[in-house]
Design goal:
globular; Rossmann fold; alpha/beta; 2 domains; 319 residues; 15% strand
């Protein structure tokens, strides 16, 4: 009897097109789900007959309550090697192996700059005007050269974002609670003494922190008030790091020049969500890791994980 494998949030029907699933085709039936399940009941019903689930990043939570409702589940594959929304203890208790896949930090670096440049040069506004017979030149672009880029976080992604900023001739500074002078020197950027100093002095601020107790709500109304009215904020990390209500208020009141956002408190965004209509906002539907090379790594890694599981030697175990 063939096992059944569900691929969640396969919005582009890309999983079976991008990777070669033939090595497991005789043993596994692969079913892609191009829509997101809004609640646990819907998810439990959809996955009840599956032995294997492939989940994309942290878009679907697997708490103990859900795992208890999936008696057939034996293998849960999460793209990448870090996932904070899976209850690993519950998975182990229910006999579910949890594996990761290869992943690249390059796509979110590139999307960060797509958002930043798109805002700085008014690309969406100018493109729409050009296509619809609107005014010829209606915005005045913000310069990058000589301006300050402030990075909240200087890890793998933040460090690469910094290198691009330096290549543009920007002055780059960084801050995080654990950032050292040695790390800042290694990347070639300035170490800001405080979060407040970084926010107040930067023309562009980009968030590159993991979400945890210390970073949840790190940027609230008081922090946004420190930004210059000409400053731009980019968040391709986690929505909860920036207070969403405070950000919406700052955008509506024109207290910052704009924001580029790829992550949201609810995903996919409901039709009437205020982020869909906020002014001064350039938003993308969580595309940070969505690139062909990354999908190849994810889904080829998923095939490898299934092969290893079938052989009784699971690889890249998480937990």
């Amino acid at each position: 009897m063939r096992l059944r494998c569900a691929v969640l949030d396969d919005y582009q029907d890309a999983a079976t097109e991008i990777a070669d699933w033939s090595p497991v085709a005789d043993d596994v039936e692969v079913v892609g789900f191009p829509r997101h399940f809004a609640d646990e009941d819907a998810l439990a019903a959809a996955l009840a007959d599956f032995d294997i689930v492939v989940t994309l990043r942290e878009r679907v939570s697997f708490p103990a309550s859900l795992l208890a409702r999936l008696p057939r589940l034996r293998l849960l594959i999460a793209s990448g090697m870090r996932n904070t929304v899976i209850d690993y203890a519950a998975a182990e208790a229910h006999g579910v192996s949890v594996c990761g896949t290869p992943s690249s930090s390059t796509p979110p670096v590139e999307l960060t700059w797509a958002l930043l440049l798109g805002m700085a040069r008014g690309l969406v506004t100018e493109n729409e005007a050009l296509r619809t017979g609107g005014p010829w030149q209606s915005t005045v672009g913000a310069d990058l050269h000589g301006r300050r880029l402030g990075l909240l976080g200087l890890g793998k992604i933040g460090g690469r974002v910094a290198q691009v900023g330096l290549a543009f001739g920007m002055r780059v500074s960084a801050w995080s609670q654990n950032l050292t002078g040695e790390r800042a020197d290694e990347v070639g950027v300035e170490l800001a003494a405080t979060k407040e100093e970084l926010l107040a002095s930067s023309d562009f601020v980009s968030v590159h922190l993991g979400l945890g107790d210390r970073t949840r709500g790190l940027i609230g109304a008081a922090e946004l008030a420190l930004l210059k009215p000409t400053a731009y904020l980019v968040n391709t990390s986690r929505a909860a790091i920036v207070d969403q209500d405070a950000l919406l208020a700052a955008l509506h009141e024109g207290r910052i020049a704009g924001a580029g956002v790829d992550v949201f408190d609810v995903e996919p965004l409901p039709a009437g969500h205020p982020m869909r209509s906020a002014p001064r906002l350039l938003a993308t539907p969580h595309l940070g890791y969505v690139s062909r090379a990354n999908y190849e790594a994810y889904y080829t890694g998923a095939v490898e994980a299934i092969q290893a599981f079938l052989a009784g030697t699971p690889v890249r175990l998480l937990g």
